[in-house]
Amino acid sequence: MSEISRRIAFLLRHRPESAGLILDANGWVPVGDLLAVLPIGRAELDEIVARDEKSRYAVERRADGTEWIRANQGHSRRVAVDLGLAPAAPPEVLFHGTPSRNRASILRDGLLPGSRHHVHLSPDVPTALVVGRRRARDVLVLRVAAAVMAAEGHVFHRSENGVWLTAAVPPRYLMPE
Ligand code: HQG
């Protein structure tokens, strides 16, 4: 993730107001507004969006010809954004990669969203390992009994870029991989 992509994620997910940006209710901001606070032009922005290895951003053109950009997921709880994602039926099992040091706390309290809107779950072990390694070398991958959770009333969403989201995962649905 380049420095400029990091900056875009920071603005679109965490602190838009730090640059005077105002997200709409669904997290979109006019492309021109974002470009006005970045040291890059439209072509470079398009390239960052297209090349992002996790498809973190979406650009949409509206009927009135205006263009908007948002982060597909990962917003801070303090940024009131409704991504408008429909509930989705998760696969039998999802995965979560976390530093091994979190093991006792997670097995006791379950997975909590921390400062984000949701707990983020991965569709496979390799992806979960990558997520966990952002934070530590020693990574624990947990299996989440997602289908059972859903059957018992927990709501799941799948973001535009394939991340599974849910409010929290109680410990009884978790098993070290
Ligand atoms: C941990 C990246 C102790 C949790 C990724 C994680 C993801 C607990 C950390 C997205 C806990 C929160 C999100 C408990 C949860 N006790 N620790 N009870 N419950 N945790 O960054 O899932 O590159 O908010 O395991 O790919 O690491 O930004 O969540 O380690 O999709 O696009 O608390 O961020 O995407 O950390 O990552 P985060 P995450 P981007």
Automatic annotation (TrEMBL):
Organism domain of life: Bacteria
InterPro entries membership: Ptrans_KptA/Tpt1, RNA_2'-PTrans_C, RNA_2'-PTrans_KptA, RNA_2'-PTrans_N
Keyword set, alphabetical order: NAD, Transferase
Keyword field contains Manganese: no
Alphabetical list of Pfam families matching this protein: PTS_2-RNA (PF01885)
Keyword Manganese: no
Enzyme Commission no: 2.7.1.-
Family: Belongs to the KptA/TPT1 family.
Its biological purpose: Removes the 2'-phosphate from RNA via an intermediate in which the phosphate is ADP-ribosylated by NAD followed by a presumed transesterification to release the RNA and generate ADP-ribose 1''-2''-cyclic phosphate (APPR>P). May function as an ADP-ribosylase.
Descriptive protein name: Probable RNA 2'-phosphotransferase
Organism: Paractinoplanes deccanensis
Gene field: kptA
